[in-house]
Each structure stands twice: as structure tokens, then as C-alpha cells.
Write a structure and sequence with these properties.
Blueprint lengths: L4 E5 L4 H12 L3 E6 L10 H4 L4 E5 L5 H7 L5 E4 L13 H22 L3 E7 L23 H20 L2 E7 L1 E3 L7 H11 L3 E4 L6 E2 L1 E3 H14 L4 E6 L5 E2 H12 L4 E4 L18 H4 L9 H14 L1 H6 L1
Parallel strand pairs: 1-2, 1-4, 2-3, 4-5, 5-6, 6-11, 7-10, 8-13
Antiparallel strand pairs: 9-12
Length: 320
């Protein structure tokens, strides 16, 4: 990659901080823009000592600060979002503000400063309850089932319109759930925290049969940077995941074995863990593989690595 000045929104978060470290390692300048609602200062410990690093503490709804922070930037990685999928119906305005409106603000700040290159973290949730499994990027969109997915799809629409209307160039990544170091939310996090508190019993949302795919964060970084390096398109969408999926029960078994426990499992019933939960997410990632990428870790290896990280960094569990 050519040496550039990158702005990373949500750069103090799980995925964002891993990306920041990788960009700095490659010799780039990086400005992190984060409101620290979920991001963590300690995730930037290594980055903060780098001469090419700058931190801006700010919210994406602060359009003045955002535009000011965009000066001299060559490329934007827009990763900041409200990722609280499970409780979206408890505060529906949050997804609109932190995902859709925030994306509009990023685009407007870019336009004001003449920045035209963007990568955006979307989600496999935009496919809703897909009829085609594995689901390709051009699959027909069903009705949206989660506010998070709907807000991300709206962000994708804004980005594509800016590419057409203002000459932007964008790459959109629809992730499965990402695992690995600095992981701060999701089922492994929840299970680990509960089992440390009470190893005798585990309450599971849904029936344990939900099928999901997962990807290690380092494999995710490899894919993102490869696609950005090869980008010669106006706008392109890539699914990011592994060529496998697992049931929640599989993950429970691996976690229990690694922790050396045999908890009693209590299911809450139903094939969905919460409103908007998609019981089967499995993405067709052949388009990304055609660029020469493939994940190095299996889902089981990624689950094990994530659990090891959480057990060795229990302060992450305590501060969440």
C-alpha cells in the first residue's frame, strides 16, 4: 500500500484498533476519531507511541469537529457504529443517529475537505433472513428484520449515491461476526463472563441451533487491506467470512471444554435469540477470494483464540 494519511472512525474499538495498528505498522499516518462510547483508550496503547498517530475524541454528530479532523486526510475507514444489535428496539433512535446520520456526516465532511476514498464496515445482517444460503452480494434483499441492519443498509445507500453524485470511490464490507484480540461484545464474551461468574449453569438466548459464521480479526484485516489496495472500482461490495458456519451449541461445547467445565444449559426457546436475530447467517465470500484472499483460521480456532484472550485479559470483561 502507498503511504497515506488515514482517518479511522471508531478507531478505539475492537476492529478499529486492530486496523489502526496494522496501518501504522505499514508506515502510514493515522487519525483516530472516536467518542469512546464503546472504544477503549487501552486499545490504543501501542498506537499512541507512534509518531504518525493522532487521536481526536469526538462524536460523529459533531459535524464541525469532524470536518476539521478530515483535513489532509487521503482515505477514510468508517467503522464507527452502534453495534448493540440485540437491544435495538429498546432505543431505535440510536441506530439511526450513530449509524445512518453519522455516515451522512462522514460523507459530508469528506466532501467539504475534498476526500473521496472510503471503506465502510457494513454487516451480513442487511440480508435479513436470506432465502439464498450461502448468501452472495447480489442476493435479493428481503424485508429488514433488525434496526441495526436497516441503518447499515441505509448507510450503504448513501455511500453509493455519493459515489455517483460526487465522484467518491468506496469499498463496502459486509462482515459476519468478527472474533479475536480486543473482542468486547458478542456470544463468546457473554458466555465467558457468565461462566466465570457461575460455571454450573449457562442461560442461552434462543434454542442453540442458530447457525452463524465468524471470522478472526486478523483475517478480516488481511481482506480489507487487500481489497483497498486493489480497488479500481467506483463502488464494490464484498462479503467477509469463512466458508463454514457453526451452531451456537458447537461454540458452547468448545468454550466449556476449554474452560474445563460442564455447565447445565438452559435455553430460552425459539429459533431467534432476540427480535431481529437472524437464525442462519452464512455468506458467500467467493468475490473476496477471487482477489487472492482466504482466511487462515477456522471458526473453531478463532473461538479458542478469542476465549484465551478474554481469560487472559479479564479487565475487558469487567469494564464492559
Amino acid at each position: 500500500m502507498n503511504k497515506m494519511h488515514y482517518l479511522v472512525t471508531g478507531g478505539a474499538g475492537f476492529i478499529g484498533s486492530n486496523l489502526v495498528d496494522r496501518l501504522l505498522f505499514l508506515g502510514n499516518r493515522v487519525t483516530v476519531y472516536d467518542n469512546f462510547s464503546t472504544g477503549r483508550q487501552d486499545f490504543l496503547t501501542a498506537a499512541s507511541g507512534h509518531p504518525g498517530f493522532q487521536l481526536v475524541k469526538g462524536d460523529l454528530l459533531d459535524t464541525g469537529l469532524l470536518a476539521k479532523s478530515m483535513k489532509s486526510v487521503d482515505f477514510v475507514f468508517h467503522l464507527a457504529a452502534n453495534a448493540d444489535v440485540r437491544f435495538g428496539t429498546d432505543h431505535p433512535g440510536r441506530d439511526l443517529e450513530q449509524n445512518t446520520v453519522a455516515t451522512f456526516n462522514v460523507l459530508e465532511a469528506m466532501r467539504a475537505q475534498g476526500v473521496t476514498r472510503l471503506a465502510f464496515s457494513s454487516t451480513g445482517s442487511v440480508y435479513g433472513e436470506a432465502k439464498v444460503i450461502p448468501t452472495p452480494e447480489d442476493a435479493p434483499f428481503p424485508l429488514q428484520t433488525s434496526l441495526y441492519g436497516a441503518s447499515k443498509l441505509a448507510g450503504e445507500g448513501l455511500i453509493s449515491a455519493y459515489c455517483e453524485g460526487f465522484g467518491f470511490q468506496a469499498t463496502i464490507f459486509r462482515f459476519v461476526s468478527i472474533l479475536g484480540p480486543r473482542y468486547t461484545h458478542g456470544h463468546i464474551f457473554d458466555f465467558c463472563k457468565r461462566l466465570l461468574q457461575d460455571p454450573s449453569e449457562l442461560r442461552v438466548l434462543g434454542n442453540g441451533k442458530q447457525k452463524k459464521s465468524y471470522l478472526h480479526v486478523e483475517d478480516c484485516m488481511d481482506a480489507i487491506l487487500l481489497a483497498v489496495q486493489k480497488a479500481d472500482w467506483k463502488i464494490k461490495v464484498f462479503n467477509l467470512g469463512t466458508n463454514e458456519c457453526i451452531q451456537v451449541d458447537d461454540s458452547i461445547g468448545w468454550i466449556s471444554n476449554q474452560m474445563g467445565i460442564s455447565p447445565k444449559i438452559t435455553y430460552t426457546g425459539g429459533e431467534r435469540g432476540w427480535i431481529g436475530d437472524n437464525p442462519h447467517i452464512f455468506l458467500d465470500c467467493s468475490a473476496m477470494r477471487e482477489l487472492g484472499w482466504k482466511p487462515r483460521l477456522s471458526i473453531r480456532e478463532s473461538v479458542a483464540a478469542t476465549l484465551t484472550y478474554l481469560l487472559e485479559n479479564r479487565q475487558v470483561l469487567e469494564r464492559a
